[in-house]
Amino acid sequence: MFSMFCRWNPLRLIIQGLLLFSLLRLNYASTDPDVEGEALVDLLGALNDSNHQITDWNYHLVSPCFSWSHITCRNGNVISLSLGSVGFSGSLSPSITKLKYLASLDLQNNKIAGVLPDYLANMTHLQNLNLANNNFNGPIPVAWGRLVGLKHLDLGVLSKDDDQKSVMDLSDNNLTGEVPAQFFSIPMFNFSGTGLPCGFRLDKPCVSTSPRRASAKNSKFGVVASTASCGGFILLSIGAFFAYRCFYMHKLKDSMFVDVADEDECKLCFGQIRRFSLREIQLATANFNEANIIGQGGFGKVYKGILSDASKVAVKRLTDYNSPGGKAAFLGEVELISVAVHRNLLRLIGFCITTSERILVYPFMQNLSVAHHLRDLKPGERSLEWATRKRIAFGAAHGLEYLHEHCNPKIIHRDLKAANILLDDDFEAVLGDFGLAKLVDTKVTHITTQVRGTMGHIAPEYLSTGKSSEKTDVFGYGITLLELVTGQRAIDFSRLEEEEDVLLLDHIKKLQRENRLEDVVDKNLKSYNEKEVENIVQVALLCTQSSPEDRPTMAEVVNLLHGEGLADRWAEWMQLEEPNLGNPGGDEVWSLRRTHTVPVPIAIVGEAEGTELLLPITPILIPGEEAVQPLSAAAELLPHPTVVVELALPLHGDAADAELDKLKKEEEEKKRREAELKKLEEDEARRLEELIQKNVQEILNSEETRLEIERRVEEGRKKLFDAVDVQLAKEKEAALTAARQKEEQARKEREELDRMLEENRRRVEEAQQREALELQRKEEERYRELELIQRQKEEAARRKKLDQGEERT
After folding, report:
1. What is the pLDDT of residues 429-468, one digit of tens each?
2. What range(s) does the Protein kinase domain occupy (predicted)?
């Protein structure tokens, strides 16, 4: 399939190019999450959530798509609000119109009052609108007539003969005025209980009864057509990508690949990295308060911050993203950190990108950096023990080895130093500051137009030619090992008072030649293993050899740290250094000395530790000629206050002449290759332009091609209509079958209900008859009891009279 995309088909090339251009334009259609977050907060305030049902819409976390409830997002934009039955008692807010991509708005079963706002007509993406059971009043805005695309699916209220999805439900509100005629064209509507003139007062029903079947067909056709067109669009876009990549790889197949440091790579794979809003960052850092600054580098300042969940972070605010390399550095670092995962690499938490800011967010390392523990200890703080320093050396080596050997493409750090090695809670080394890192292919030489790094840590070939590679990092790692052992800075001008070696590397070489190991070790180290210190120093010197070819790889460095092959490599180093024993300083290209020199402008920004070295141009060291650029002109190019010094190249005898001849030849060879590459690029661009123009002209002039396209389009439309008709027929048959089944089920349920009602009626009548007979029986018994009582009373009266007569007698 890949080879198919590599064929130069004129029609495919033009169509894929246009589609790719459209795709790139669509990528910039997203809305700033801060705008949507502010709009939602304003809306919540106007709706008056007096019951506090929504508590996670935090004003300080304006990123609604991250964790807010009642919200659905797509591509970083809010598309749905489900706020039914929440208990709102306020009114709507015009801020809702800032939700430009809102497709569904559900506010049913609340107590929202006020007139229906006409600004809702501006929400062109709105498909679902449910305002039922609220206290709205006033007329329906005529402008709402433009909302004919409203769609709402509610299976609980649809009749069995209705499969439409277009619903407008404004029922049970106190509305006045007339219903816009456009609303009666919506397949399903409900204006009942609103007070609006419909039904017998207007020749329009209050509730729709039978939806139009034709609209269903059109709707389904639209869905199928949209799906088909989107699928084709995606496939053609993928084809355009592969065609472009095939051409690009073919172009570079037999030529040298040049990765310019300022190149902007916009393809990002963020994984689980969080996108912060600018407001979150401002609140975390107290609006970038100067008191929270914990570091500063060539790309900006680093602030300590505290997020809303009380977690501490380090916020890196880039300041030169508009300059060459700034934006590329940001995008490159975000992508690199998202895929480079290792225990000895600093993890990226998230980022923030706006029109005016580029910000990176890292976890805050409570133990700060190695440089802090070596040289910036506060009173009472303990210095790093030798075991800890050794563990840091191993950890940094493993992290750098991962970047060089296990990342594809490789990652070059370019500014490895003690200040960029952080310490976690267990004092394990964590490599940070990937703002200077660049992606490099396995066969690529990394050429930059600016040399960035820290004074004393920059490899000589990087400084003189602008070329960086894995061996550039190896040199920086070697200097870092010397920092760990000595506790000193990589460059210290105070040493000029006693000796000529201001560079730590030259100073250590001198002590090594004099066998003064005890003077190498940091004075703050109370105890250490002399053999281990000696091995570390040897590894450091092997890593800092002048020729990058002589330096070990980081994988080899890890083995050397374990003692594997160290003796043999050290013996080779001693043989290379033997000719220089009588000439301290030797033929080192990278050296600062007060001797016969060739001046080259160098700018040192800030203090000695953590200074960023910036060459506006790549210097060419040729004796007897002027510097590439005057010192004053170099200083004017720098964005910060600078101290300009001269980097001097010592020249000694035939070795120096040979080295300079070598540099001349390398420079001439580089210029020749650059000229050849430029000519190849120009020829290829011209050939491609001619090919495109020729193909475009052929397409425009080819009537046969046009007819073929029309025929294929017509065939596609016919197939699409046939597929739609078949699908509609199947769905119609399925709907009729389901309707018949439901009708039969309803009939059986009605018969069963009638039988149960008749049985209940009979039982009730029998119970009533039994109750009446029982009541009659009780009445008769009571009547007999009363008669008996009456007879007893009469008998008693008669006996009483008889007794009285007898007494008189």
Report:
1. 998 876 454 433 333 444 444 556 677 888 888 877 777 8
2. 288-574
Among 651, 650, 600, which residue's Cα sits nearest to residue 628? Answer: 600
Residue 547 to residue 663: CA distance in whole angstroms: 12
Give me the sign of the Cα torsion angle 175, 179, 183, 185.
positive
List binding-site positions.
316
Both tokens assigned to 135: 């206290």
CA 680 – CA 253 distance, rounded (Å): 12
* Maximum pairwise Cα distance, the chain: 183
Query: Distance between CA 334 and CA 457 in Å, rounded?
Result: 25
Query: How do beta strands 438-440 and 429-431 pair?
Result: unpaired
Binding-site positions for ATP = 316
Counting Cα atoms < 13 Å in the Cβ hemisphere of 437 gives 27
**What DSSP designation does 735 have?**
H
The catalytic residues are 415
Q: DSSP assignment of 418-462, as one string? A: GGGEEE-TT--EEE---TT-EEE-TT-EEE-SSEEEETTTS-HHH
Provide the 3-class DSSP secondary structure of residue 633: helix
Let me know if 697 is exposed, middle or buried by CB neighbors in 10 A (0-12, 13-18, 19+): exposed
> What is the DSSP code string of 268-330?
---TTPEEPPHHHHHHHTTTT-GGGEEEEETTEEEEEEE-TTS-EEEEEEES-TTSTTHHHHH
Q: What is the pLDDT of residues 363-413, one digit of tens each?
A: 999 888 898 888 888 887 888 899 999 999 999 999 999 888 888 778 888
- Residue 12 is which amino acid? R
H or E stretch including 502?
none
Query: Which residues fall within 8 angstroms of residue 148, CB to CB, at 6 or more apart?
Result: 182, 185, 186
Evaluate whether 78 touches 40 at the Cβ level (below 8 Å). yes
